[in-house]
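Database export, one record per block. Field names are fixed; values are copied verbatim from the stored entry.
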Amino acid sequence: MSQRRSVGIAVLGAVLIGALTALQARINGSLGAQIGDGVLAGAISFGSGLVVVLVIAAVLPVGRAGVRRLAAAIRERSIPGWMLLGGVIGAFTVASQGLAVATIGVALFTVGFVAGQTTGGLFLDRFGHGPSGVVPVTLRRVVGALLALAGVGVSLTGDRVGGVPVWMLVVPVIAGAGVAWQQGTNGRLRLRVQSPLAATVVNFAGGTAVLIVAALTHIAVVGPPRALPTDPWLYLGGTVGVVYIFLSSVIVQHTGVLVMGLGSVVGLLTTSVALDAVWPAPAAPSTPVALVAAGVAIGGVVVAAVPWRRRRRG
């Protein structure tokens, strides 16, 4: 397979990751709204994802082998402790989804998330955090990132944003920057243990532990949540997370942190437009504004990801 075709497939995978992230945000946001507790919604999401990934790892021989290598590496301390902390970032992300998405909509949540992810990916690639090492900050990559941020700016236009609490935009920015770090970390862990499934187990185990402690603390302070809903789709957030975390640990080594982040921007924005059109939220941008924002961000992905070559003269 040619390098250009390989990169193209990887970028399409990054777009899928973004689409799944938007879908998970809507599911977790809806669950958080129905039970009145976004932190508990995150714990339920991560806990269900942990069950799914443990079953897969137990059933597949490659999964069992990967978990054994992971356990041996942890015992031998050949893996730095920070490589095991990706789940903490994932926990923060799903908790922020449960707290904010039902109010501001998926698209507006994506605004802040994209800003943090795009900027974070550019810096992390520059300092070699991803599994592919140091990725130069070329003019093409900077322009692509700026176009993605311009798409963010377009999404902020309109009267609906004025009544949104500031923290609902700040928290997604922090989550986006954290996810850029998480994706690079997952890719490096995957290379260490030669198993994307084992890297996914680490993420869900760590994230579930953090969210259970946070949910119990929150319940102790504010009291128990409302009764749990019975709609099955509200409990699929964890399964969706398993899929996109697994994909991100594989794809990032082919694209770098920034390009994967930009590809996921396309999936995030376009899927967010569709989801907000079906399930509108009070502060969601209008569909025309969201479509323009998605188009600008897609231009950024094309500029940053496509390996343009200069024509030779003569």
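Remark 1: The longest helix spans residues 237-278.
Remark 2: The chain has a mean pLDDT of 78.
End of record.
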